[in-house]
Design goal:
This protein has 458 residues and is an alpha+beta fold. It has one domain: Cytochrome p450 (Orthogonal Bundle), CATH 1.10.630.10. Helices cover 48% and strands 11% of the residues. The chain has helices spanning 18-27, 58-67, 76-86, 95-105, 111-116, 118-133, 141-158, 166-178, 185-188, 198-202, 204-224, 232-238, 250-280, 283-297, 305-309, 312-324, 356-360, 401-418; strands spanning 42-47, 50-55, 139-140, 330-334, 339-341, 344-346, 351-355, 419-423, 429-432, 436-439, 443-448. The strands form four sheets. Strands 1-2-7-4 form a four-stranded mixed sheet. A three-stranded antiparallel sheet has the order 3-11-8. Strands 5-6 form a two-stranded antiparallel sheet. A hairpin with a 2-residue loop joins strand 5 (339-341) and strand 6 (344-346). Helix 14 (283-297) packs across helix 16. The chain is globular, with a radius of gyration of 22 Å. The two termini are 26 Å apart.
């Protein structure tokens, strides 16, 4: 059987010009990826005054992400889209500023610390399942998954939602992505970053809303003093650069907490939403995943660390989901000095796009590039790890990748053990601005899984 082919974007048959690129980027970044990018490891071109290269092959990506990383800092346009929200945090900093923050923060996400958070994730997964069970009619999956992962991030980062209104904060994130997080004509014309973009002006209120909530949480923690349950904020307040003893300032704390709250729930929620959409449209895969999850949980209301280890197919589902819908489908890098990628000379001031979306659906690297098939990630199937990069790679690989995968596995395993999912509307379209979201909302019919549906049950 061919399997379920989830929605994608039909790529243009040739690179677009300046105005067409601007229109496409403002509507959907995926719309600028040319068809040839899915058949070649590198594609080069010009848009207005700018010379660019799209890289979607293992050798080139290894060169940029790891072997010559200092030559490829994040592009100013990409940093411009994030700076007002997250400042010079771990995600946007470069050079020594990035290195000290990485050394200070990395221990926060050690395997031991992350696994210690599993019980909190289990409780939030149970609450998410209870909320879904109470919905009368089709369930808005993205909304529910955003609520579930926001629950997780508030519990593990801030020991609760005391200073956060999830709906207000979520609306501010959406407003930010729709304004500051979109490319401007000034970006295509290489205007200096200090020239205000219209989106930055329109998004100021959203930034103030998000910062106000995070600042209140930090202020309250300072006022309360030591003691109480340790969480991500506690870890970050204590974080210290090993060589110098440097600690985070109030601004460092604000910007890094802001980044982890946004990234820590948005990307995981989208992965879960896409996964449930694909399982709803692939009954055989859902039967297998659900039966295995039900067997792993038994009478438990939600999955924990032990249960997810007994339900490995759910992780395969998530890895295949991250292949088809990586959290961020396209990254941009500046070029400092001349280099060589494949047969191309890369010049200073060129832009290199790391095309993760095309890498993951490339016709040369994958047997069924556009088909949802969790067995692509079966343990016995060897893979070049540089062909699957949902969290980036090299020294700047996402520091919270293990945290994200643990919460996603716990929530997905819990939901699959308790429910069956079926389509309740038209397939959405993948739309990328910062992240790849399904538009419109994913609507699914959710029914309780019948007792005794565990794997191998009579």
């Amino acid at each position: 059987m061919p399997g379920f082919v989830p929605p994608t974007i039909t790529p243009p048959d040739r690179p677009l010009g300046v105005m067409a690129s601007l229109r496409a980027v403002r509507e959907n970044v995926l719309g600028v990826l040319p068809d040839i990018a899915f058949t070649q490891p590198i594609v080069s071109g010009r848009t207005g005054p700018g010379r660019w290269h799209m890289v979607q092959g293992a050798e080139g990506l290894r060169r940029v992400f790891r072997d010559n990383i200092e030559n490829y800092p994040k592009s100013e346009v990409m940093i411009r889209m994030l700076r007002s929200a997250v400042g010079r945090s771990l995600f946007t900093a470069e050079g020594p500023e990035w290195r000290w923050q990485r050394r200070a923060i990395a221990p926060v996400f050690s395997t031991r610390n992350v696994m210690a958070l599993a019980p909190l994730m289990t409780r939030t997964a149970e609450r998410a399942a209870d909320r879904i069970a109470a919905v009368d009619g089709p369930v808005p999956i993205v909304r529910e998954m955003l609520s579930a992962t926001f629950d997780v991030i508030c519990e593990v980062a801030l020991s609760g939602r005391d200073h956060f209104d999830a709906e207000v904060y979520g609306a501010a994130i959406t407003k930010y992505f729709q304004t500051v997080g979109r490319a401007s004509l000034l970006d295509f014309l290489d205007a200096p970053h200090w020239v205000p973009r219209p989106g930055e002006i329109l998004g100021r209120g959203a930034v103030r809303t998000m910062h106000r909530m995070v600042a209140r949480a930090i202020e309250e923690r300072r006022r309360r003093g030591p003691g109480g349950a340790e969480d991500l904020l506690d870890y970050m307040m204590k974080a210290e650069e090993p060589e110098t003893g440097r600690r985070m300032t109030e601004t460092d704390l604000l910007h890094n907490m802001q980044f982890f709250i946004v990234a820590g729930h948005e990307t995981t929620a989208l992965a879960l939403s896409w996964a449930l959409l694909m399982l709803a449209n692939d009954p055989a895969a859902q039967d297998r995943a659900g039966a295995e999850a039900a067997a792993a949980l038994g009478s438990a209301p939600a999955a924990g660390a032990a249960e997810i280890d007994r339900a490995p197919y759910a992780e395969q589902v998530l890895q295949e989901t991250l292949r088809l819908y990586p959290p961020v489908g396209l990254l941009a890098r500046n070029v400092l000095a001349e280099d060589r990628l494949y047969d191309r000379t890369i010049l200073p001031n060129d832009t290199v796009f790391l095309n993760i979306y095309a890498l993951h659906r490339h016709r040369l690297w994958w047997a069924k590039p556009d088909v949802f098939d969790p067995d692509t990630f079966a343990p016995e199937k060897p893979r070049d790890r540089w062909l699957h990069l949902p969290f980036g790679a090299g020294p700047r690989i996402c520091v919270g990748a293990n945290f994200a995968m643990l919460q996603a596995r716990i929530i997905l395993t819990t939901l699959l053990a308790r429910f069956r999912f079926a389509p309740a509307g038209a397939l959405p379209t993948p739309v990328m601005h910062m992240t790849i979201r399904p538009e419109p909302e994913v609507m699914l019919r959710v029914t309780p899984r019948a007792p005794g549906e565990a794997l191998g049950a009579a």
